[in-house]
Amino acid sequence: MDHETPISRLQSLQRDLIAFSELRLTNVARLSAELDASVQDLRKFLERKGKNEKSRQQLVAPTSTQPETLKIENVEYRVSIDFRQSALAVADELSLDELEAAKLCIEVSPGDGFQQYNDAITADEEGVMSVFQGPVDAMMKAQDGPPDAGSGLWKKCVDGLADVETFFRALSERQQTMMMTGQVLVGDAADACQAQRLLLTRQHESLMAILVCLLNGRFAIDQPEHRGLISKAATFDGSIDFAMHYVPALVSSAARLGSNQNTQADTSHSLHKLFEAGPAQLQWKSSQLKAVAIVTWLAEYSRRYDDPTADPQIRVADRQKAELHRSDLFMQAVKEKAFHFLLATCKWLKPEVWHDPAKLGLVDFLLSDANILPANASPPASDFVTCTMRELQGFTDALVSNMPDIFRRLKSEEDDQRRLNFSSSPTEATRYEPDLERFIVIMSYAYQDDPETAQDFWSDKDSNLHGFLRWVSQRLPTPRVAAFCELLTSISSDQKAANQTHRFLLEDTAMVSGKLRKTYSVSWAQIFAELDTYASSLRSKLTAPQSVTQDGFIAGSEYIEGVETSIMLEAYLRLASHICRVSPEARNWLLREQTFHVGEIMFQLASSGIEGRIQASCFSLLAAMLTEKVAEVNDGMWVMLDNWIAAGGPAGSVAARPAVPGRALTSEKQYLQRFNDKPETATAFVALLSTLITPSPTQASGMLDALPFPENLGAPSRNAGIEVYVDFAIGTAFRHTADHARVGIDPTETNVLRSTCLEFVFQSLTTFNEDLLLLANATSISVDSAIKVSSLATYARLHPFARVMEWLFNSNVITALFASVQPDADMLNGLDFRSPLVQSTLRGMQVMNLAMRLQATYFDIVRPIVKTQSGSRPPPVANAALASFDDVILSQLGVVVDITGLAASTHAELSLEALSLLHKLAASRKLSDTAEPGSRAGNRLIGAVANTSDAIASELVLMFEVDEFDIETGEQPLKLVKAQAVLNMLNSSLDGSTTRPTVAHCLLGFSRGERTVKVTSDSAFAHSQSLFHAIAACSATLPVAVGSSNLSWLLGIKRGCQDVVNKLALSPLTANLVRPELLSMDLVEALSKSQIPVAFNPLWDQRASTDPECLLESSALAIRDFLKSRKLFFEYAALQLRLAAEQRTYSVQESTMSTL
């Protein structure tokens, strides 16, 4: 194990420890060697040599003349004055030994003084972070250390917290000073500061995670250690996001030392005095952090008093007095915003990846007066989020189990406050504090996305958690019912739990004293009764005389008033949507077994005039009812929706929309425009449309020969079809997303809407069966009689494919489509793959890919059929100047740069889609060939990519750096999936033109000329660091077998690499540049080492060549690529021999012959 630095050693150890914990590590011997090699690094954990006067004098001598050399660890370096000053600045910034600082400066890449200074600081922080996140954390989780271990490490970690916080404070103060003096950080300076903030945040998180691991393991953490942590928390006065890092350690330490399971009574009583009034009470700089420490401590400490007979020497009166004192202390902490702080922590740690207006409205309502996080706060690490949520699960469980009376007190006081507010005049009413609701939502965050632990609520009906669920569900005021619905949603994340929640909601009565009594708890019956009440109020208001606007709409304000009422309705609808989507039992019951007409009521609630979020929630429930749908339910929903839109009001409404004298009745298109007033409403409505056109599971596995809606939908009131809905989804909702930033709409909402619209486009294109049209055109088969639609022409005309393709050639839609694939690449890589921005970017590229593939079918077959129905067609929307999607790309070639950049994305799906699209663009004649003699159009695609190709290629190089760890499991890693896609794109591009530069040449490291390529002196190619060099090296060094089996995916990569190399070596365009490079790499000799006899690896994808199935499975691809690889090797060897003979380079000729 000869790694260059301790950082690389620890990173390798961390990688193998993670693989070992996930049962993926096949080479345990390597892990053992890495552990042995890292012993010294682990012993240096958090050790830092402080500033030293002797080292300082060696670095900067007190004499006026500085020596030319500097000796560090018995090695002399020739250094400049600027280097000495940079090293000195690093030492001062990090309070580090001056020679250690100089060593850091030497290790980073050379640059100017400022860059060297920032790189050295970042390198130091990265090194410490690697130690934090690596083997120490993994070994602490093992919980098998000696019983007296841990206290020394604990003290180091607590001291380390102070160091990190000091550095972070200094960094923040420096940035504030620069802002106050008008200085603006840009470029490398801004990047360095942001990197330092992120690394310091990760260090702080990791230190807290190690403390939690020590507390949860069998380590010697006792009273002194706990006092040290609490004292450290009490003195904290830094950024609120750093304060939130203390939460898991406070919860875990309370669980370890507060209850009677791990600690003696005297110890716990002594620690309790840190929190109650008295001489031993700590003074806290952060009142909210103090409040959190108190509630987490009391949740565990109160467990000692569960059994009133445990200590008979204590009198009943004294016991009751102590209990009241603890209760008062807890309530005071709650008033000091303990639950505010914990809920804000949950919201920050678990932000909604997908914009959820209902949940966002509830949480914002509960946090309306909470502290705001800094805008530049670094996002938390996923491991730290998991750690914190696990501890919060323990806190909520302990509080429910050990302090049940506190919830009764909270409930009683809140109900009294509400009654007082309702009985007071509006001028006297005060805002009450919904702290019980805050706790319920904190609990929902803790159990969110953890179905296994959430079963604790359902597995034992006598458990405290299930009892709390039943107690809190009864006689709920408006905001509390919303919080309770959120809790039910979070603990119903899988089908089993959702089915259990459905059964819970079916219960509307309970057995009390042998009689059935109504419980007045949250149930399906109550939810539907509330929804029906508000729907009925809408009906009564709509039937009353109303004034009508000039465009035919009913004037008036929102029909449902009050923030709390809206939150309650949204919560009911969100819970129903979630349960319906996840639970087949609930979905079947809603559709078939109950008398409540969900669809009709949802359309009544979604009438224009209601709040946008409630409309969105109604549409979401309708879409949820279509999960795993059947054709009959889908068609019924279409008819109900179309009747509602056509009537311009609630479904089932008897009264027609009033007419305006002198004006025509408002069209469906104008009525639909109102849904675009609020992004959340437009998003939910387009999502409903997307669900409606998605084939059912039975249809998806069939021939796709039916329309996704009733064939006569809309007739006779208008032309049959859903073009009006397509026009809204694309021509209104999607097209206007390009203007959202200008009008101040939140970017997250824009990304959600854009992604939803692109999903609609994607479904419209992928569910169209072009094979039916191709079959009818190429054969004499009567397709009309074989499909479910009345005729093939009707299928082509009515399917949303035709109208969607027409919109894709609309100039404004093209602008919005291109905007979806042009996000900031660095920001994109830092996001969760499920985030709206990543998903909209992915869907945007998929739509462009589909448009390139399907455009011939549209222009040659579908559009002529649609034009025959010109009398009944809606107005054309396409730009007549665009004859193909290639013209669309050619009109805005800048988008190709962004697509090329996405090929190097850390999100594999995004990268693969970008490479697939580049594959098509590079093969396009319109984009790659000159249109006429003397024209430069053929070079425009290459010119667009050329300026950024080196930066992009440097990321692609990483895909071809393969080591033992990547392939030892025998499963293809994502980096090699991406490598195969890169090779496919490069080979396709090279095949497209052998005499002119292509996109492939730019990415491989060549600089383009008019009709030639060259290598510039400052390029990656000139320094042997280009993508070409990485591919050539991979072709020689990549193994093709794991164990005794050749693997098709390894052979495919090897063959693809050799293909690229041979094509470049044989092409007259690049031969003179490539051949000397390959000769200097001794490629023939390197390749010859992998040309082993077939008998050495007798299996092909685990099948013997004599197996009858061998040529019918992927093993056939392995054999094909093996033979192709051999052929390419001998072709290149023959080329080198021929060139050596022609040039009379006998040494090369002799070397090649000896190799062969």
UniProtKB/TrEMBL annotation:
Q: Where in the cell is it found?
A: Nucleus
Q: Does Amino-acid biosynthesis appear among the keywords?
A: no
User: What are the entry keywords?
Assistant: Nucleus, Transport
Repeat among keywords: no
InterPro entries assigned to the protein according to its UniProt record, in alphabetical order? Nup186/Nup192/Nup205 (IPR021827)
Residues annotated as transmembrane: none
Q: Which GO terms describe its biological process?
A: nuclear pore organization
Q: Which GO terms describe its molecular function?
A: structural constituent of nuclear pore
Top-level taxon in the UniProt lineage = Eukaryota
Its cellular-component GO annotations read: nuclear pore inner ring
Family per record: Belongs to the NUP186/NUP192/NUP205 family.
- Name used for this protein in its record: Nucleoporin
Originating species = Friedmanniomyces endolithicus
